[in-house]
Amino acid sequence: MDDGTNRLGWMLDDALRMPETRYAILLSADGLLMAHSERIGRDEAERQAAGMSGLQSLARSTAEFCGDAGTPWRQTISEFDDGYVFLVAAGPGAYLAVSATQHVDMETVSFRLQELVQRLGKELTSPPRPGADSRA
């Protein structure tokens, strides 16, 4: 991935321009690393991607506790003594995770992550093939 296949990494680095943010990864629903910020190595990013996949799966399984088992999962925030992990839906089968210190402005991070998700959505969606039938 560090050999040029981390094509969306620059977008994650851009998201980390907020004060008190640490790392960012983009992962698939099955826990595969899709992209990572420059501040985190590939091996660590892959390990975290696997863990984040499990975290979002657990969060999704508790939707009924919020009122309806069919309610779509959108975001999970985990708090630790040293900071936070924000995990958000980033499109069909993709999730974005950002870690930050305990001094981060949580509202600003949540807002910026939603902006990034919009940008990533455009990158993750494949454009129609030329000549493809639009009725398909």
What tags apply to this protein structure?
single chain, 136 residues, alpha+beta, five-stranded antiparallel sheet, 5 strands, globular, disordered C terminus, Mycobact_SerProt_Inhib_Rv3364c, Roadblock/LAMTOR2_dom
Structure overview:
InterPro entries: Mycobact_SerProt_Inhib_Rv3364c, Roadblock/LAMTOR2_dom. It holds the Pfam family Robl_LC7. Residues 9-100 form the Roadblock/LAMTOR2 domain. This is Roadblock/LC7 domain-containing protein. This protein has helices at residues 9-15, 42-60, 106-124, and strands at residues 21-28, 33-36, 75-80, 83-89, 94-101. It starts with 8 loop residues before the first helix and ends in a 12-residue tail after the last helix. A hairpin with a 4-residue loop joins strand 4 and strand 5. It is globular. A five-stranded antiparallel sheet has the order 2-1-5-4-3, sandwiched between helices. The longest helix is centred in the middle third of the chain and has 19 residues, at 42-60. It is of the alpha+beta class. Mean pLDDT is 86; it is low at 132-136. The protein contains three helices and five strands.
